[in-house]
């Protein structure tokens, strides 16, 4: 890493960390999906049954794996700062990698720094470089892969091609969108080599195998581990906690959220929805991608086609998932077009500088900077609009208008879960409490002694759930009247327990709240009958 890159990295990392601390201090809220990834890492080192398999087999494991060394320090886990530190790190790496692409395209220092400044201050980039979510990790890997691909095209050196393949392999462990990205990039490489006269069959085979070998290994390793631990290679797709099951409610028209009503199962509606979200996310992307497409049609150079294909892969993935009714359609699913806007601009300015006088390039750079600035402002406006930023507006409304943040939502204060944890610490210290941690993860992070809790990642969880007497002292059960509560493993096995209890469960306290948590004491029905008979 050059001195310039080190300075940029340190500055951006500190900015991201400051934003994370400010948000935590100002709002006392966390992004619940991010905290769930932190909890998965926490179970590995601080649970009743600590083991690596506790990291979970639904979501891609890399974001949680990276946090394992951090969650050893409990305050970092409880506050969610462990995830924020990882986001700050990869946000800084993203800016450094973007710097490398700007240098690759010979952008002048002043223009480079201006564009980096605008990228860093985009509201979505700023937020997701601080909130612990996995998006920024994938953003970094996409920029990294784009840079290595461009280096390989320019130099033909194998080391850059290997780094490209390794980058794609790592992306598979961050988000599932990366699987389509890997396939599309393979198709681009194949088309490129077919078009090149100096690629014979042997060279083509060797190059493609170099690309595919790490990716195939990475892609097959995750199903293999799912099979080894969970007994099902596709557990991450088919389990009750997987995306397909969690979005099942949307496949019933009566339960669809209004903004997805016309998109699910309707290709035109899906395309309209995706384009609207992309325009709100960063409308400059739509402008500059058209210009890059024109360049490609004129030059037929693979680098422009590769950039276009890479940029549109993830929005297409998001559209397919919406069409199939397997996506919430969040605004953040389109965040990846923001860095691609800047890469497109660098490629366009480089091409234009080779064809036009320098004065016109300067004018074009200024116009582009103005459009990016406007796009950034509109990104912030969209984040504050619940029709677009359906997660983000909870935060912006609080920061701008002091609107209250919900207890448990995409962004939440988790006050009820913290209250439950305090109750457990005060009245049931040392007693064994069983609950499904898929939605109860904030409680696991908040209690003083998580080793008293019997949670989903414990290897004997299922056995105790079915035969709790003598092994568990309490059940903590969420209301089955919510879309997530109905999937809770306790409610699945004992569907009447929450409302009426069972012969071995008696209600102790109803905590209420959005999740409707209730604490039931486990009793021995045979012992009770003996006592009644006596």
Polypeptide structure, described:
This protein is mainly alpha-helical. It has two domains: 3-399, no CATH class; 414-533, no CATH class. Helices cover 64% and strands 5% of the residues. It has 25 helices and seven strands. It has helices spanning 3-27, 32-45, 62-65, 68-71, 74-79, 81-104, 109-120, 123-128, 135-155, 158-171, 177-195, 201-230, 235-238, 243-246, 267-299, 302-323, 337-355, 358-383, 392-401, 415-427, 437-446, 461-466, 489-493, 497-500, 525-533, and strands spanning 30-31, 411-412, 433-434, 453-454, 474-477, 505-512, 517-522. The strands form two sheets. The chain has a five-stranded mixed β-sheet. Helix 6 runs parallel beside helix 9, helix 10 packs parallel to helix 12 (201-230) and helix 11 packs antiparallel against helix 16 (302-323). The longest helix is centred in the middle third of the chain and has 33 residues, at 267-299. It is globular and about 90 Å long. The protein starts with a helix and ends with a helix.
The mean pLDDT is 92
Strand order of the largest sheet: 4-3-5-7-6
Largest sheet: 5 strands, mixed
| Cα-atom radius of gyration | 25 Å
- Portion of residues within helices: 55-70%
Distance between the termini: 79 Å
Strand content: under 5%
- Residue stretches low in confidence (pLDDT < 50, at least 5 long) are none
The count of domains is 2
Number of strands: 7
The assigned structural class equals mainly alpha
Brief summary of the model shown:
The chain has 25 helices and seven strands. With 534 residues, the protein is mainly alpha-helical.
């Amino acid at each position: 890493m050059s001195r310039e890159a080190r300075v940029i990295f340190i500055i951006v990392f500190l900015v991201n960390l400051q934003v994370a601390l400010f948000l935590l201090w100002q709002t006392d809220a966390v992004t619940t999906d991010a905290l769930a990834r932190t909890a998965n890492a926490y179970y590995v080192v601080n649970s009743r049954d600590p083991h690596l398999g506790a990291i979970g087999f639904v979501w891609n494991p890399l974001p949680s794996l990276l946090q394992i060394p951090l969650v050893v320090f409990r305050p970092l886990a409880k506050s969610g700062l462990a995830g924020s530190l990882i986001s700050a790190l990869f946000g800084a790496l993203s800016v450094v990698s973007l710097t490398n692409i700007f240098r690759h395209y010979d952008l002048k220092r002043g223009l480079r720094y201006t564009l980096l400044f605008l990228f860093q201050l985009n509201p979505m980039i700023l937020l997701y470089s601080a909130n612990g979510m996995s998006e920024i990790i994938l953003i970094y890997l996409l920029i990294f892969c784009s840079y290595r691909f461009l280096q390989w095209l320019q130099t033909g050196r194998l080391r850059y091609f290997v780094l490209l393949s390794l980058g794609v392999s790592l992306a598979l462990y961050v988000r599932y969108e990366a699987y389509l990205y890997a396939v599309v990039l393979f198709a681009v490489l194949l088309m490129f080599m077919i078009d090149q006269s100096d690629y014979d069959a042997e060279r083509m085979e060797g190059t493609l195998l170099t690309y595919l070998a790490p990716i195939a290994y990475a892609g097959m390793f995750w199903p293999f581990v799912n099979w080894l631990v969970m007994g099902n290679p596709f557990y991450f797709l088919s389990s009750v906690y997987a995306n397909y099951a969690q979005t099942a409610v949307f496949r019933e028209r009566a339960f669809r959220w209004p903004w997805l009503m016309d998109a699910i199962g309707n290709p035109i509606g899906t395309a309209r929805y995706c384009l609207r979200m992309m325009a709100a996310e960063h409308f400059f992307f739509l402008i500059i991608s058209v210009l890059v497409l024109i360049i490609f049609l004129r030059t037929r150079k693979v680098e422009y086609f590769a950039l276009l294909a890479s940029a549109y892969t993830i929005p297409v993935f998001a559209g397919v998932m919406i069409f199939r009714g397997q996506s919430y359609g969040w605004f953040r699913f389109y965040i990846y077009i923001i860095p691609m806007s800047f890469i497109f601009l660098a490629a366009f300015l480089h091409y234009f500088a080779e064809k036009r006088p320098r004065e016109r390039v300067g004018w074009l750079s200024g116009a582009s900077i103005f459009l990016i600035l406007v796009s950034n402002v509109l990104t912030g406006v969209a984040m504050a609009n619940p029709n677009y930023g359906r997660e983000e507006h909870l935060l912006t409304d609080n920061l701008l208008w002091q609107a209250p943040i919900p207890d448990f939502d995409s962004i939440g204060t988790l006050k009820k879960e913290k209250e439950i944890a305090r109750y457990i610490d005060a009245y049931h210290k040392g007693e064994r409490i069983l609950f499904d941690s898929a939605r109860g993860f904030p409680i696991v992070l908040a209690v003083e002694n998580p080793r008293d809790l019997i949670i989903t990642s414990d290897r004997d969880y299922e056995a105790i759930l079915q035969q709790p007497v003598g092994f568990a002292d309490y059940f903590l059960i969420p209301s089955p009247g919510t879309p997530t509560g109905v999937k809770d493993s306790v409610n699945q096995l004992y569907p009447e327990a929450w409302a009426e209890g069972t012969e071995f469960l008696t209600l102790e306290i109803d905590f209420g709240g959005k999740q409707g948590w209730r604490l039931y004491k486990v009793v021995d029905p045979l012992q009770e009958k003996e006592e009644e008979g006596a």
